[in-house]
Design a protein that fits this description.
GO cellular component, one term: cytosol
Number of strands: 37
Structural class: alpha+beta
Helix content: 25-40%
CATH architecture of the largest domain: 2-Layer Sandwich
CATH class of the largest domain: Alpha Beta
Number of helices: 18
CATH topology of the largest domain: Nucleotidyltransferase, domain 5
EC number: 3.5.2.14
Distance between the termini: 38 Å
Organism: Actinomadura viridis
Enzyme class: hydrolase
Protein name: N-methylhydantoinase A
Amino acid sequence: MGYRLGVDVGGTFTDVLLVDEETGLSHRAKTASTPADQSEGVLNGIRKVCRDAGIEMDEVAHVLHGTTVATNAILQGRGARVGLVTTEGFRQVLQIARSFVPGGLAGWIIWPKPEPLARLEHTVQIPGRIAADGTVVTPLDEERARAELRRLGGAGIEALTISLINSYANDEHERRVAELAAEELPGVPVSLSSHVLPEMREYERTVTTVANSYVQPEVSRYVSNLDRSLTGSGIDAPLSVLRSDGGLIKAAKAAEDPVSLLLSGPAGGVTGAAWFAEQAGFSDFLTFDMGGTSTDVALVLGGRPRIGRETTVGDLTVRATSVDVRTVGAGGGSIAHVPELTRALRVGPRSAGADPGPAAYGTGGTDPTVTDANVVLGYLPRQLAGGEISLDVEAARKAMRTIADAMGLPSIEAAAAGVIDIVNENMLGALRLISVQQGYDPRDFALMSFGGAGPLHANALGRLTGSWPVIVPPSPGVLCAYGDATTCPRDESARTMVRRFSTLDDAELRAALAELADAAAGRLEAEGVPRESQTATYQIDLRYHGQGFEIPVEVDRATVDGDLLDGLGALFDAEHERLFSFLLGNEREVINLRVTVSGPRPEVAWRTLPEGTGDPSAALVRETEVWMDGATTPARIYDRSRLLAGDVVAGPAVVVEMDSTTLVLAGHAATVHPSGSLLIRPLNEEG
């Protein structure tokens, strides 16, 4: 047993969490992020947390890291110059794309189409053709391939994507072109579509592989620098990186397959939420992660986050497995404004960010933000982060006065309350996307809230959704780092298998799944995870014959070992009816197979708080006043670190800790669970 180190890099802060695997005791640190080289901020945080814990750097046994390097490379346009090799006749695959334009009616008139990550002048086509069944129709023209590769080398490409038609069925031509590229373009990293996404649909396979090439050099440099820096600092522990689906991958593998890291940061939060929800005894819940700029929401069913097949970053959507996270531009720094044309209050998506920040921070910001509204209403104390941050209440009131004046409201508090109501409604819309729109009733779920700003709004979101209890885990501001430290290694294999049920039998389908499971298990075993400790989960994409889309269906081991096709058909029908409220009589059809193999969960002890009397008065900091339900009302401020298991904090109340602040509304109470989580419920609800 030793120490597990979780590291999450955000745009403003780098969160570091050190967990003693034997006792569950944790130490946390926040340091400023260093965008020019994130590894510097990571090392600063590691040194700080080890110093605070009183341990040497070499006592760290595992370093688990959630990173935004791949995401930022796409958002900021800092990726590699990518060369793309296509089959003759498919040179414009990225330009043609899909006939979808975001926005409402006539959106196509004003929509600026984003530039593909591989430019047309850096895209070449070579003769050679594979059929959909994997047979070779036209042999590969190797002489032409060499010439085109040399031309790309002359254009100064920094990464190469090879995406040939139907290569998911037979990768022979792609592998041969890769061999030629190694000779003609030595040192240039190569991504094969048959490796990155061995599934049908030419555009999705190509754009995903191009995205992999685009971020690969940046991710590779970062991972190498961090690994080298960790070793130089005395940490001999292996470095693992969090995937978008919430699993861990060794650093070297992450550098080869960086497209799987695009949602690494949000995935850490959902994984950490699942860890604490299990301790509190909840398996079905919505997650609500509110930061300074945006809010991420997700749905967890049966203790497992729902996994999606698409990942969207900015204007780019790729086919990569990730936690199904939805994002809305609502955060603590979201700016409130009143357009002259409509005179209707709006909040976000524009944000004050960290620079200049909310007016209350006293760092030059003057625009009214959600944080300023919380300050005006008395929900945020004057001192944050243990006294490290002082809030300027008068600056917040001055900023909020502009909203009150523009709307003709009688008081600044009324304007601030309006800002809070609107941002809460914005976040409610995001929660409905992952619950109601997916066929789930939010009243059947708890609500797990975290992030620096989340616990301030959690009680109100619980009231809007009917999701009880509202769970605020310990250290909610660093929960993503908890997720990094408490998840497990994972690998995945996939293939396309377009077969109608009438042409398929259980044995053939079971054998195909076993082959995929064996491949993923072998890769995980090579990373030091014994096969006997591995578990496999199965997902099959199905549709009715003739449909233009498919639905992923989770399949358990009992179904795989039993009457597979009958069980699969029943699962598909149930999912189709849940999503669309009807069934078709068409024959069912298998499209894609996917097997995910996971290692064991880490053996990290759960902490248990000492038992209290139910009276939280020992944690009382002071009395205060807050604006709630249209009037000023007395409230109490509590220090969370002094609360004990079973203590009940009745609202109105504010619970403060180093990295976040929790608001308990009037008519509600927060009970301290032995695991340390706060469970907020209406006073009139039993249980």
